[in-house]
Amino acid sequence: MSTLLRNAIVLLLLLTAVTGVAYPAVVGGLGNLLFPHEASGSLVERDGKPVGSALIGQSFTEPRYFWGRPSATTPAANNAASSTPSNLGPTNPALADAAKQRIAVLRAADPDNKAPVPVELVTASGSGLDPEISPAAAEYQVMRVARLRGLEPAKVRELVAANTQGRQFGMLGEARVNVLKLNLALDQASR
Amino acid sequence: MNTAISFASNTNWQAYSGESTMSYLTDALGLTVQNFLSAATGIAVLVTLVRGFVRRGSAAVGNFWVDMTRATLYVLLPFSLIIALLLVSQGVIQNVSAYIDVATLQHGSQTLPMGPAASQVAIKMLGTNGGGFFNANSAHPFENPTPFSNFVEMLSIFLIPAALCYTFGSMVGDRRQGWAILATMLLIFLPLTVGLVAAEQAGNPALHGLAVDAQASALQSGGNMEGKETRFGIASSGLFAAITTAASCGAVNAAHDSLTPLGGLVPMWLMQLGEVIFGGVGAGLYGMLAFAIVAVFIAGLMVGRTPEYIGKKIEAYEMKMASLAVLIPAALVVIGTAVAVMSPAGVAGVANPGAHGFSEMLYAVSSASNNNGSAFGGLSANTPFWNVLLGICMFLARFPLAIAMLAMAGSLAAKRHVPPSAGTLPTHTPLFVTLLACVVIVVGALTFLPALALGPIAEHLMSATGH
After folding, report:
1. A74, B340, B355, B404: which has the fewest C-beta neighbours closer than 10 Å?
2. Does A144 lie in the same domain as A98?
3. Across residues A43-72, what is the average pLDDT?
4. Above 90 in pLDDT, residue B15?
5. For residue B115, how far is the Cα from the chain centroid?
6. Residue B94 has what pLDDT?
């Protein structure tokens, strides 16, 4: 019995050293050597200062910016320190109410746009930090942003296209537009 | 305590949220290590059981320490390293920096979380553990930033459970036996996955009356996007949900609580089938072998012969152990859910009204009792009642089952080899694959249909008729 216990403890200590210390350290070392930008959070800078991460959605509520996915994080939307989905069930009345309210806000910001709202702009994302929207959700907002910034819609569409990624390797996932990068490019263009 | 059982039992149910509770040191020393060891234990138990079939008249079934060390150092560690680096290349963070405060474009501020995520995410997938570095798990862009990282994560969930089928065939000296088990798993997995994706793509009827465009097109995935990430859309989210619950991984890249009623039924049922469709590392296959023994027993009953499997007679003792393996998780789900529903403290955790609230409780107990670890996340499970109930379920589902399998291994190893005769049921044919799939489904359907009818099926009928 005591041999059994000793074996168990020795094995646990050895494997803890290998898997709990050496392994994360090696991944950290190699990861930062090969992919320093990615390993440290894919930060995006403007004028030398970080303004966010390309992977973490920010709150955009001003109509002159493209808006991202609704976020269910608390206490504020897009709280990166506390990721969470809404966890609303499909038949929960709160889900439909939230969608109605989001439609109303979008319509108020752009009264001329009568097109149905792409579903992603009225449903909360899985992390509460989705950095991207679909090309359909971007197109829905193009006219509003162009009008408020005094830019040609064609110019705005050009910026959208420049910040759109297709399916990865042509087949994986979905096409998507990075909202933070797009808005940075817009600010640059409107200067 | 709940967290300790959770990670040791390979469930990785998380009643806490990763960002706010765990330090980098706890993550690495406690959780990452348990992620490795609980998976290695599953492999060790499995190879012990397989040795039971291989050895003849033997009193020994191998050395646990050797199996454990080899599984960790030769299989889990090298694969984890490769996967972790692939994930970092896509944008999964790996650092020990403090959280970063940034000033956002709209003159607000945002605190970006940091930490050694990639090393933990790799083994959480590969070991079918599932415990996320962040609260949103693999929906979090720092844990799963691109469609390719999503593909790598899905692949690493199925990698070892699927490969072990081949290991099994190789070890018993007849690879067809392994292929037959793999075919059975796919036979059940594929139709259920297609059903899940179709249900999600159909969208949520509650939004149909509103000015919402949920049609799939070249520009958007459409469908039920609540709780899903844009980069994954419907297909990659649905496939992930099926894989993570078929294997007992439990990592999620979308909010399962917000799946459509029928879309949510699939992951729930995949868990309730006993986590044998791929299942946990090692644990899935030994569960499936228990079902295979039940299947040859049923076939034996029909023709009145003593059943055999892989050259060993299946007798009363093996049947008792196999039945325990099949019945313990099922009983835990049914009894645990009943206890929760009857307790005010259980019902108090429910977040969504109506039938969906019942689904939340059923899902939680199914997840814990089959060592999955995913959740209908609305349930407030970090209460004394839920921590104790789910802790008991996780413990009883993991350890007594492993003991039953080890007991069966010992009994099988001591037996003589029975050469196949004209009356032996071959266990590598399409006939046996169908029989085995039917046994798994019939046990799963008979046990859980009443409960599923009260939860997701009732909700689907209400939703489809506009209530």
Report:
1. A74
2. yes
3. 95
4. no
5. 26
6. 95
Q: How many CB pairs under 8 A join A and B?
A: 357
Which amino acid, one-letter code, is at B463? S
Give the dihedral sign, CA B270/B271/B277/B281.
positive
Choose the weakest-confidence range: B88-102, B320-334, B418-432: B418-432
Whether A148 is covered by a domain: the verdict is yes
**DSSP letters for A11-28:** HHHHHHIIIIIIHHHHHH
Selected residues 149-178 of chain B with any CB under 8 Å from a CB in chain A: 150-151
Give the span between the Cα atoms of B228 and B438, in whole angstroms: 33
Burial A54-83 (b: 16+ CB within 10 A, else e): bbbbbbbeebbbbbbbbbbbeeebbbbbbb
* CA distance linking residue B75 with residue B39, whole number of Å: 11
Q: What is the pLDDT of residue B303?
A: 84
Query: Considering only CA atoms, which of B151, B43, B136, B133 is closest in space to residue A24?
Result: B133
Can you give the residue range of the structural domain that contains B127?
2-101+111-464
The whole-model pTM stands at: 0.94
pLDDT band at A167 (very low <50, low <70, confident <90, very high): very high
- CB contacts, 8 Å: A127 with chain B: 134, 136, 139-141, 229
Residues A15 and A94 in one domain: no
Greater model confidence, B79 or B63: B79
pLDDT at residue B20 in the model = 60
Cis peptide before A75 (omega within 30 of 0): yes
Q: Could you give the percent of chain B with pLDDT greater than 70?
A: 97
Q: Do B136 and A83 touch (CB under 8 A)?
A: yes
What's the whole-number mean pLDDT along residues A165-191? 93
Q: Tell if the CB–CB gap between A20 and B29 is shorter than 8 Å.
A: yes
A169 and A132 in one domain?
A: yes
Confirm whether B242 is domain-assigned.
Answer: yes
pLDDT given at position A191: 73
Contacts of B119 in chain A (CB under 8 A): 23-24, 27-28
pLDDT value at A99 more than 90: yes
* Closest of B69, B66, B39, B37 to residue B51, by C-alpha: B66
Report chain A residues whose CB lies below 8 A from the CB of B123: 19
Which residues pair with residue B24 across a beta bridge?
none
Same domain assignment for residues A177 and A145? yes
- For residue A52, give the nearest of B72, B110, B134 by CB distance: B110
Q: Is A33 exposed, middle or buried (0-12, 13-18, 19+ CB in 10 A)?
A: exposed
* Interchain contact, B147 vs A31, CB within 8 Å: no
Together in a domain, A73 and A150: yes
Subunit contact A86:B226, Cβ cutoff 8 A: yes
Confidence of residue B65 (pLDDT cuts 50, 70, 90): confident
Closest in B90, B217, B233 to A38, CB measured? B90
Q: Is B422 on the interface with A (CB under 8 A)?
A: no
Beta strands in B214-364, from DSSP E residues, in sequence order = 308-309, 312-313
Name the burial class of residue B253, with classes exposed (0-12), middle (13-18) and buried (19+) by CB atoms within 10 angstroms of its CB: buried
For the record, the structure tokens of B15 come out as: 């009643």
User: In terms of residue numbers, what domain contains A27?
Assistant: 1-40
Report the number of distinct structural domains present in chain A: 2
Instruction: For residue A50, report the phi and psi dihedrals to the nearest 5 degrees.
Output: -70, 130
Q: Which residues of A are less than 8 Å from B152 in CB distance?
A: none
**Residue B106 falls inside a structural domain:** no
